[in-house]
Write a structure and sequence with these properties.
The protein is α/β, with parallel strands linked by helices and about 450 residues long. The protein contains 13 helices and 18 strands. It starts with 10 loop residues before the first helix and ends with a strand. The chain binds pyridoxal-5'-phosphate (PLP). Keywords: Aminotransferase, Pyridoxal phosphate, Transferase. This is Aspartate aminotransferase family protein.
Length: about 450
């Protein structure tokens, strides 16, 4: 046991071991420093040096809805580990916690969605949703319907299926053939009207989608996938008429709609599921992250009744399984997490956090580097630009430097997605923590020296 790394090791030792032994998700080139987080309570986390930090990212991004260190969730996990940590949902087996969670999700979901397939996270969920959509059409006697329409700037995960649907080319470069038959269309991005050649963005996008359907042939298209609000693309809400018009067009052509709610569900935007108020009326909803507030890895694919009946009806089997699908411990934690979200009114709290950020960040609107401030419930995107006229984004290095400065000078954890600084604090973020984050951001952005492409010292 003696050489097992534990949090008791010095920070420098942990960092050295990390460099030697860990290949990180979305690892950039080897940065010399890595911040090792070892403990959390509420919206505060501590690194291995004992440094206290305000987590405005929510446990690594859009995850920790109920905050860190919640005894209720630790107890739910411990109790379930003692009772039954794992029993597969394969074959003729099931377990009580996944059944209760599926029942609970059905009660929260739109009326047509009553069945859930559990995964370990969002990427697996998106892959499952793509398979279900293709299988649905196959079973109905339209096997050629296998194209998937996704969107540029969308983020759907890192597996081959979800990674191909992701609209960030870096995900697909140099890793061999990606998933075939995935087509991308433009998303709504109201701050960048130049993308739409002076047209109303929704008109432009509906026209582009119609042409895409015509080009591929409607009878070859299984589904379209989209986030209600683009998350990793930079927290970009669509115009109100976008999803209703997309939905109508898809329905006319028998194309399914998959709402990827891995970020937006469970209160992040102030509702259980964001796709309903946005008029998506999806056939499949994928969720993860906030379903357990990150206390256990869990995702869920919530599926329309007709799709389930068609895919598994008669003698048909759905030959697609993960060992940990419906993991009892993860499902027990999710049930306790949903209790907390409900009991503590965290969906409403999400909207209050957003309103407070709007006020607190208002002074940032005057700072030259700030192009656009977008607040959707308790998530915020601040798009940083080198020029407010052209709306050209700052370099990745400068955006990263802003997040680094917030960490170094204010002990506030944020991060950039491209040129956009993103916040997604726990939904237990207090007014004082919200104001502190806003003030820190305004202070750092005021020090951005655009001419020099750097941040002036404090
Ligand atoms: N879908 C969306 C909208 C996401 O934001 C993410 C992750 O950030 C995923 C899917 C992938 O989820 P996971 O990282 O749990 O595989």
């Amino acid at each position: 046991l003696s050489n097992r790394p534990t949090p008791e090791l010095a920070a420098s030792e942990l960092e050295a071991l990390d460099r030697r032994h860990v290949l990180h998700p979305h690892q950039r080139s080897q940065r010399s420093e890595r911040r090792v987080i070892v403990r959390g309570q509420g919206s505060t986390v501590w690194d291995a040096n004992g440094r206290k930090l305000l987590d405005a990212l929510g446990g690594g991004i859009w995850v920790a809805q109920v905050g860190h260190g919640r005894a209720e969730l630790a107890e739910a996990a411990a109790e379930q580990a003692g009772q039954l940590a794992q029993f597969t949902g394969f074959f003729e087996y099931g377990n009580d916690k996944s059944i209760r969670l599926a029942e609970r999700l059905a009660a929260l979901a739109p009326a047509n969605i009553n069945r859930t397939y559990f995964t370990c996270g969002g990427s697996e969920g998106v892959d499952t949703a793509i398979k279900l959509a293709r299988l649905f059409h196959h079973r109905r006697g339209e096997p050629d319907r296998n194209w998937i329409i996704a969107r540029h700037f969308g983020y759907h995960g890192a597996t081959y299926g979800s990674g191909t649907a992701t609209g960030i080319p870096d995900m697909q470069v140099a890793v061999g053939p990606n998933l075939p038959n995935v087509e991308k269309v433009m998303p709504p991005y109201p701050y960048h009207m130049e993308m739409y050649g002076g047209q109303n963005p929704t008109d432009f996008l509906i026209n582009e989608l119609s042409q895409t359907i015509e080009r591929l042939g409607a009878r070859n298209i299984a589904a379209m996938i989209g986030e209600p609000v683009l998350g990793g693309g930079g927290v970009i809400p669509p115009p109100d008429d976008y999803w209703p018009r997309v939905r109508k067009l898809l329905r006319e052509h028998g194309i399914l709609l998959i709402a990827d709610e891995v970020i937006t569900a469970f209160g992040r935007t102030g509702t259980w599921f964001d796709s309903e108020p946005r008029g998506m009326s999806p056939d499949i909803i994928t969720v993860a992250k906030g379903i357990t507030s990150g206390y256990a890895p869990l995702g869920a694919v919530m599926v329309d009744d007709e799709i389930v009946e068609t895919v598994t009806g008669g003698e048909h089997s759905f030959f697609h399984g993960y060992t940990y699908s419906g993991h009892p411990l993860a499902c027990a934690v999710a049930l306790a997490n949903l209790d907390l979200l409900e009991k503590e009114g965290l969906l409403e709290r999400s909207l209050a956090i957003g309103a407070r950020f709007r006020t607190g960040l208002a002074p940032a609107a005057e700072i030259p580097v700030v192009g656009d401030i977008r607040v959707v419930g308790a998530t915020v995107g601040i798009e940083l630009v080198v020029n407010r006229e052209t709306r050209e984004g700052v370099s990745m290095d400068l955006a990263l430097a802003v997040a680094d400065d917030l960490y170094e000078t204010h002990n506030v954890i944020t991060r950039n997605y491209g040129p956009t600084l993103v916040l997604s604090p726990p939904l237990v973020f207090t007014d004082q923590e919200t104001d502190r984050t806003s003030a820190a951001i305004v202070e750092v952005l005021r020090r951005v020296d655009l001419a020099a492409g750097r941040i002036a010292p404090r």
